[in-house]
Amino acid sequence: MIRASKKEKCTFHFHNTTVNIFVGLFLSVVFSNHTAKSKKTLAKPGVKNIVLVDGVRTPFLQSGTIYADLMPHDLARAALQGLLNRTGLPKDAVDYIVYGTVIQEVKTSNVAREAALGAGFSDKTPAHTVTMACISSNQAMTTAVGLIAAGQCDAVVAGGVEFMSDVPIRHSRRMRKTMLSLNKAKTLGARLSLLGSIRLAHLAPELPAVAEFSTAETMGHSADRLAAAFGVSRLEQDEFALRSHTLAKKAQDSGLLSDVISFKVPGKDIVSKDNGIRPSTMEQMAKLKPAFIKPHGTVTAANSSFLTDGASAVLIMSEEKALAMGYKPKAYLRDFVYVSQDPKDQLLLGPTYATPKVLEKSGLTLNDIDVFEFHEAFAGQIMANLKAMESDWFAQTYMGRKTKVGAPPMEKFNSWGGSLSLGHPFAATGCRLVTTVAHRLQKEGGQYGLVAACAAGGQGHAMVIEAYPQ
Amino acid sequence: ERETRLKFICDCTAGVMSSTGRSAFFSRTHVNYEIKGDVAVIRMNDPSVNTLSVQMQREMTEVMDEVWGNSAVQSVVLISSKPGSFIAGADLNMIQACTTAEEVTLLSQEGQKMFEKIEKSPKPIVAAINGSCLGGGFEFAIACQYRIATKSKKTVLGCPEVMLGLLPGAGGTQRLPKMLGLPSAFDVVLTGRSIRPDKAKKMGLVHQLVDTLGPGLKSPEERTIEYLEEVAVEAARGLAKKQIPLTKEKGLMQKIQDYVMSYPFVRQQIYNTVQKKVMKQTKGLYPAPLKIIECVKAGLEQGPTAGYLAESQNFGKLAMTPESKALIGLYHGQVTCKKNRFGTPEKEVKALAVLGAGLMGAGIAQVSVDKGIHTILKDTTLEGLSRGEQQVYKGLNDKTKKKSITTFERDSFLSNLTGQLDYNGFNKADMVIEAVFEDLSIKHKVLKEVEAVIPPHCIFATNTSALPIKDIAAVSKRPEKVIGMHYFSPVDKMQLLEIITTDKTSKDTTASAVAVGLKQGKVIIVVGDGPGFYTTRCLAPMLAEAVRVLQEGVDPKKLDSLTTGFGFPVGAATLADEVGIDVAAHVAEDLGKAFGSRFGGGNIEFLKSMVDKGFKGRKSGKGCYIYQPGLKRRDVNTEALEILESYKLTPNAAISSDSDIQYRLVSRFVNEAVLCLQEGILANPVEGDIGAVFGLGFPPCLGGPFRFVDSFGADKLVEKMRKFEEVFGNQFTPCQLLLDHAKDPSKKFHK
């Protein structure tokens, strides 16, 4: 350990990635003699150790089911209260709350604040909302890490909520303009003439679409093209989707999904399980028609993640604070990166770009990682990413790298299910991934975990998580 | 033992080869095929561009016969291995090599026969289209049973033959009316416009669309073609197994249309309407559209035999018309003028600065930013700058309305534009194009200011329509970097760019200016320096003559109809309004000083009086006509007629017939063009023709002034000019080169 930290000091002074790679390689050679459990810690001198104390989530439900009559902040409240219950955290011990959301309910545009107040947090605890599509709660968590690392806070709650059972449907721009002018019209005549200007077509509503603003392409369409670009077959996609559902079912049945809290839905029963897990058969799945590109597309409802309602929350602290409060943290949150690329043709390739970058930053290789949790937007997207990561040509042509990073071994990959089966409430997924990595590291005895996810806008994220010594 | 094995393998190979057709497999260079299960995938791969050449047709026939004869094959996919094109069209050289109409008719009939076999194929054929699918290639595709196209920006369908004075001669005029119905078919064949994939799908021209793919495990282009093939193979299987129906159920509108069209008098009505519309637009100067109507009519009214015969015979006739030769000449000329004969410049222009945010300056900025060139637009006043930036925004925004670009692309293009009032950032410019007021002292002032701030490699281009470049460059410290770039208004619509070099302009400067122009999408002619260069110099005498004609009492509307009747797209009076009466007066005065009485004719004082009254043409709302925003109809400006009264001339009856007036206008234009070639202002007749047609609207059916002299006859033209010379003097004196051609009929500008 002394040797390691000495070497790391070098890297600290140089601040150079190539040096980091070198040290990483060097270290892995030095420590490969030891058993797997004695890999070095990723602690860096002069950088605070930041820990995940615990994480919870509401059951993820298909939208339009039991949560249908709630509002987004209700779900967020449930997750926040669940976190308080789980950790026994005094409400006033929280310095700050950061929450992610994608489709905003206009009444609660700072949903973090509304949910915090409603969950009974101190009204002296500030809260803000972040948005970065499907990596919104990753952004919430890394914002928390930043606040702690900068010495501004010691205990931050991060999380995310998505509520697809109700989305803002707007009047058309013409209609809105008329209505706003109506407010300002002073005379009856002016008002009548404005009302008279309304045409039937102006009444047609504007529906939000899961489409890129820059390209107007829906995400499913882009995923289908991506799968085709990497030659991912329909069969491969269905197989991967089936795997996700099968593993999720197994994890659910074995009680591994301990981050799920029970939630008494007003007017309904207590919910304590995800309801989108539905292992089917290959034959059943093969019957489905393509959902986006017709008639020859390969992305179907069965091999895509479904619209989901859900919320998640995690408690992040500086290690000293956590220990001082008597907590036994679950994991260290280490290096993270954000990447972005062409939103048209590489919309969902975030993990491919983010993975080698974060590994380099941590001085690790793919082989060092014991637990992988990748966000499964579409089976085709995951398979395309795996193929891209396995391709030297892709690494050289598009990433400016000498060699491929390699694809994660499947036995370490999303082994408790993923977004395809558990559900994908856009802004809540990031916390689920991080908490799952922590839980899997504990359960499986690994040391390093890697989270990676893609997001609309052609962005991506990856984070290295280190098990807290048991 | 090893030897016998080797021999065995050889024998087998030979056996296989003979069974697939006498080792023809190896001699085929344009078409090959592969059998994928029960689907034959035929790939076209002409070593240069896929065209329906003799070689391609021969190999295709061979391959088709093999495929039809192979019982293992149930269906066929036809695809190109070229990323940018399916089949770009028929081989023009093949048609041009024919000397008689009968030969061309024969070519057409061969094509018709081949596509008839394709149409009647017992095994369904899927045309998998990526890239241009035009002319003969388009006719090939519509003969197939099923069409799948990629959504690539390069994918376009259509039959542009009419633009070359021809018609779709391989069944196009017969199949399209059946596929699309009469009105749409006429629209497609008569306009020759390119149809984008999504539109083609809506019209029912293609059955299925395939997206283009981005980065994957291969290059996007390569993988997209592969993907198209995969989808096409699946479709071919589906067709063979009858899982995919060959005929689509017709919609209600289609059924109603078919019902209405079943009445002969309705069809007759359509023929008449279309005929009238064509006559109105072409003034009867273009035979191709009329022949197309004839062919369609023959097919529908007298049956396919008559229809196909009419098509092949008319195709032959059209190929021999001077109009077709002129249009094909323009096509070739345009291709030539889209190349940089000065080579690759040392430094690519990435940062451009445009001085003056007027109509021209803003137009130049617009066609630069949307090609990814960072452009500074500088003006001296905030109002001027604001107007200019609005012009760029509007130009791009109009494209979003036509859906040729997205709003996002518009925004990202606009991010290349920086509007400013100072010279900030000019130290990083690779080229400055000034488009300030046409006044030598202002141009000098600007040039000095700019040279003080630009880096040494930066090129100074001046956008002027008449001032000699060497006069502008006279105050330059680095005249080798000074060049003229004469754009035409409106810059985003007019295709021509006239580049003017002085004795001192370096070759690299010229190469760079041409490269920028090509990037801006222009057709380029490079001419020598002198007053009016080439284009303005040709236009000025014609406009001088037009003014005289007006003074002789001819109404502006009559003058317009005489010029458009000759084939000019815009009448002379309207053209003067478009150019600007003030500009015309300015140029006439300048060139008059430079060239003397030869440039006389109409009275410049008349133009000046117009300007004094504020009648500066369209931009001021009044010129020869009155322009009202939102109104298409234009009335003659009666006040202008009043001014004309005081400059009235008495026409000489001997040279004032309609035809005389037309030739008075045209011969001065043509003579000046030929003189430009004689003086070396023009490098060759091709650029002369392209410049006249694309910049000044010289009748395309005549192919430009030089082709006009070739086809009309220099001697006949000289004869006419001599007659006018007797009355008007040296304005009509034919130049020496024209006289040379008149003396020796074997002399032609175009071979």
From TrEMBL, chain A:
Q: Does the keyword Endoplasmic reticulum apply?
A: yes
According to its UniProt record, which reaction does this protein catalyse?
hexanoyl-CoA + acetyl-CoA = 3-oxooctanoyl-CoA + CoA; butanoyl-CoA + acetyl-CoA = 3-oxohexanoyl-CoA + CoA; dodecanoyl-CoA + acetyl-CoA = 3-oxotetradecanoyl-CoA + CoA; an acyl-CoA + acetyl-CoA = a 3-oxoacyl-CoA + CoA
* Main location as per UniProt: endoplasmic reticulum
Q: Where in the cell is it found?
A: Endoplasmic reticulum; Mitochondrion inner membrane; Mitochondrion outer membrane
Q: What class of enzyme is it?
A: transferase
Is Acetylation among this UniProt entry's keywords?
Answer: yes
Q: Which residues cross the membrane?
A: 12-31
- Where does the Thiolase N-terminal domain lie? 50-320
What keywords tag this UniProt record?
Answer: Acetylation, Acyltransferase, Endoplasmic reticulum, Fatty acid metabolism, Lipid metabolism, Membrane, Mitochondrion, Mitochondrion inner membrane, Mitochondrion outer membrane, Transferase, Transit peptide, Transmembrane, Transmembrane helix
What pathway, per the record? Lipid metabolism; fatty acid beta-oxidation
Might you give the EC number(s) for this enzyme? 2.3.1.155, 2.3.1.16
**What biological-process GO terms show up in the record?**
fatty acid beta-oxidation
What the protein does?
Answer: Mitochondrial trifunctional enzyme catalyzes the last three of the four reactions of the mitochondrial beta-oxidation pathway. The mitochondrial beta-oxidation pathway is the major energy-producing process in tissues and is performed through four consecutive reactions breaking down fatty acids into acetyl-CoA. Among the enzymes involved in this pathway, the trifunctional enzyme exhibits specificity for long-chain fatty acids.
Q: Which family does it belong to?
A: Belongs to the thiolase-like superfamily. Thiolase family.
NCBIfam families in UniProt: AcCoA-C-Actrans
What is the protein's name according to its record? Answer: Trifunctional enzyme subunit beta, mitochondrial
Automatic annotation (TrEMBL), chain B:
Q: State the similarity comment.
A: Belongs to the enoyl-CoA hydratase/isomerase family. In the N-terminal section; belongs to the enoyl-CoA hydratase/isomerase family.
**According to its UniProt record, where is this protein located?**
Mitochondrion inner membrane
- Could you tell me which species this protein originates from? Cyprinus carpio (Common carp)
**Catalytic activity from the UniProt record:** a (3S)-3-hydroxyacyl-CoA = a (2E)-enoyl-CoA + H2O; (3S)-hydroxyhexadecanoyl-CoA = (2E)-hexadecenoyl-CoA + H2O; (3S)-hydroxyoctanoyl-CoA = (2E)-octenoyl-CoA + H2O; (3S)-hydroxydecanoyl-CoA + NAD(+) = 3-oxodecanoyl-CoA + NADH + H(+)
Which residues are named in the active-site annotation? E498 (for hydroxyacyl-coenzyme a dehydrogenase activity)
Question: Which coarse location class describes where this protein primarily resides?
Answer: mitochondrion
Q: Name one GO biological process term.
A: fatty acid beta-oxidation
The UniProt entry, under CDD domains, shows: crotonase-like
Keywords assigned by UniProt, alphabetized:
Acetylation, Fatty acid metabolism, Lipid metabolism, Lyase, Membrane, Methylation, Mitochondrion, Mitochondrion inner membrane, Multifunctional enzyme, NAD, Oxidoreductase, Phosphoprotein, Transferase, Transit peptide
- Going by the entry's taxonomy, the superkingdom of the source organism is recorded as Eukaryota
Q: Where is this site: Important for hydroxyacyl-coenzyme A dehydrogenase activity?
A: H486
What does the organism's lineage look like at the top?
Answer: Eukaryota, Metazoa, Chordata, Craniata, Vertebrata
Keyword Calcium in annotation: no
* Subunit structure of this chain's protein: Heterotetramer of 2 alpha/HADHA and 2 beta/HADHB subunits; forms the mitochondrial trifunctional enzyme. Also purified as higher order heterooligomers including a 4 alpha/HADHA and 4 beta/HADHB heterooligomer which physiological significance remains unclear. The mitochondrial trifunctional enzyme interacts with MTLN.
EC nos: 1.1.1.211, 4.2.1.17
Q: Which GO terms describe its molecular function?
A: enoyl-CoA hydratase activity; long-chain (3S)-3-hydroxyacyl-CoA dehydrogenase (NAD+) activity; NAD+ binding; transferase activity
User: Which PANTHER family has this protein been placed in?
Assistant: TRIFUNCTIONAL ENZYME SUBUNIT ALPHA, TRIFUNCTIONAL ENZYME SUBUNIT ALPHA, MITOCHONDRIAL
* Transmembrane parts of this sequence: none
Known pathway: Lipid metabolism; fatty acid beta-oxidation
Q: Name one Pfam family in it.
A: 3HCDH
Q: What is this protein called?
A: Trifunctional enzyme subunit alpha, mitochondrial
Cell division in keyword set: no
Residue ranges of domain 3-hydroxyacyl-CoA dehydrogenase C-terminal in the record: 532-627
Q: Where is this site: Important for long-chain enoyl-CoA hydratase activity?
A: E139, E161
Where in this chain does the record put each 3-hydroxyacyl-CoA dehydrogenase NAD binding domain? 352-529
